[in-house]
C-alpha cells in the first residue's frame, strides 16, 4: 500500500497494515535538514516581476522540497500551503499549480491537503476587544460574516474539486488556550459549531477528507467538535491538558486521532521524557486503528532536529501493528 492509502485507512477509522501513518502539519527545519530555506520563510514580493520560467522554477523547487520532507521523514501526507499563506505575497495561480506539480513529481504516493478553515479562531491581541464587543453588540453580524466565509471557502473548494488534485483540507483555526477554549462551550456552539459543521459537510459532499486542527484544551468542546463530523482531530495538545488515552476512550470510535507527542518536551525536555511521550501517544492512539502519529503542533523553528529524529526512532521501532 502507498503512504496515501494507509493514511486514508486511518482517517476512515481503520487499522492499516505495518507502521502507523505519520505526518507533521509543518516541518520548518529545512535549512538544517536540507540546506534550503523553508517555503514559509521565502518572500515573494517580486513575484509579479519574475519571468514565467522563474515562477515555474520557484514552484517546482517548493514542490520538490515538500516531497523531500515527506520521503526523508516517513510522512504519509503533505500539507501544502501557498506562498504568502503566512505573509510575503500571494502569487496568482500558485495555489493550484504547486499541488499539481507535487502530483506530477510524486504521483499518488502522498495524501495531499491544504488549509481550508473559514471559522472564527482565537483573535489576535489587536482584535480581541473588537471581537468581544461584536459578540455583545453585533452578534447577528458576526454570524452573517461566518456564513459568508463558509460560502467563499466552499466555492474555492469546488474549484479544487474540478482540478482533481487535492485529497482534503486541514482546518487550522485555533479555538483554545492551554486552559480553556476562547469561547464558552455555549458561545462556541452559537458562533462556531454550526458553521464548522456546514463547512465540513460541504467538503465531504465534494469527496474531500477533513482534518480539524486546534491547539490547546479542547476537552470542554470535544463533543461539539466531533459533532461536526471531521474525519480527524489534530493535534491533541498535552500542554493543554489533552490526554490521548481519555480522548480515545471518549471519541476514538467516531473520529481519527492525530498527534499528542508533547512539543514542549521535544524542545526543552530530556531524551527520556521525549521517549516516554512518544510511547504514551503510540500506546494509547494505535489500538484498533483510527490513529495517525504526530507531534502536538509541528516541527517548528528553533527545535533541535535531533529531537525529532529521536521521536522517529521510537516510532520506527514501536509504532508497528502486528
Structure description:
The protein is an alpha/beta fold and 322 residues long. It has a single domain, classed as TIM Barrel. It is built from 13 helices and seven strands. β1, α4 and β2 form a beta-alpha-beta unit. The longest helix is centred in the middle third of the chain and has 25 residues. The two termini are 16 Å apart.
CATH fold-level name:
TIM Barrel
Amino- and carboxy-terminal Cα gap: 16 Å
Percent range for β-strand residues: 5-15%
- How much is the radius of gyration in Å? 19 Å
Average pLDDT figure: 94
CATH top level class name: Alpha Beta
Secondary-structure class: alpha/beta
Shape: globular
What proportion of the residues is helical, as a percent range? 40-55%
Q: Please give the CATH architecture.
A: Alpha-Beta Barrel
In terms of per-residue confidence, which ranges show pLDDT below 50 for 5 or more consecutive residues?
A: 85-89
**Overall strand count:** 7
Strand neighbour order, sheet with most strands: 1-2-3-4-5-6-7
SSE topology string: HHHEHEHHEHHEHEHEHHEH
Largest sheet: 7 strands, parallel
Amino acid at each position: 500500500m502507498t503512504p496515501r492509502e494507509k493514511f486514508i485507512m486511518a482517517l476512515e477509522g481503520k487499522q492499516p497494515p505495518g507502521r502507523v501513518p505519520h505526518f507533521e502539519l509543518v516541518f520548518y527545519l529545512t535549512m538544517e535538514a536540507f540546506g534550503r530555506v523553508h517555503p514559509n520563510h521565502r518572500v515573494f514580493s517580486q513575484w509579479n516581476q519574475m519571468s514565467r520560467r522563474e515562477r515555474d522554477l520557484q514552484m517546482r523547487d517548493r514542490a520538490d522540497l515538500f516531497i523531500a520532507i515527506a520521503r526523508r521523514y516517513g510522512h504519509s501526507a503533505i500539507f501544502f500551503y501557498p506562498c504568502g499563506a503566512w505573509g510575503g505575497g500571494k502569487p496568482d495561480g500558485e495555489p493550484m499549480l504547486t499541488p499539481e506539480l507535487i502530483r506530477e513529481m510524486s504521483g499518488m504516493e502522498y495524501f495531499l491537503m491544504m488549509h481550508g478553515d473559514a471559522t472564527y479562531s482565537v483573535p489576535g491581541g489587536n482584535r480581541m476587544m473588537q471581537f468581544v464587543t461584536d459578540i455583545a453588540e453585533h452578534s447577528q453580524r458576526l454570524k452573517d460574516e461566518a456564513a459568508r466565509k463558509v460560502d467563499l471557502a466552499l466555492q474555492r473548494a469546488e474549484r479544487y474539486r474540478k482540478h482533481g488534485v487535492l485529497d482534503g483540507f486541514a482546518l487550522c483555526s485555533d479555538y483554545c488556550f492551554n486552559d480553556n477554549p476562547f469561547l464558552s462551550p455555549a458561545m462556541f456552539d452559537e458562533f462556531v459549531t454550526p458553521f464548522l459543521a456546514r463547512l465540513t459537510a460541504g467538503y465531504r459532499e465534494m469527496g474531500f477528507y477533513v482534518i480539524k486542527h486546534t491547539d490547546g484544551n479542547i476537552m470542554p468542546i470535544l463533543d461539539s467538535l466531533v459533532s461536526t463530523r471531521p474525519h480527524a482531530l489534530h493535534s491533541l495538545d498535552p500542554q493543554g491538558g489533552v490526554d490521548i488515552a481519555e480522548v480515545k476512550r471518549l471519541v476514538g470510535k467516531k473520529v481519527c486521532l492525530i498527534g499528542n507527542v508533547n512539543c514542549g518536551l521535544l524542545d526543552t525536555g530530556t531524551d527520556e521524557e521525549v521517549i516516554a511521550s512518544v510511547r504514551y501517544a503510540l500506546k494509547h492512539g494505535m489500538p484498533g486503528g483510527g490513529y495517525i502519529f504526530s507531534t502536538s503542533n509541528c516541527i517548528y523553528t528553533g527545535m533541535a532536529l535531533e529531537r525529532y529524529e529521536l521521536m522517529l526512532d521510537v516510532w520506527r521501532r514501536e509504532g508497528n501493528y502486528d
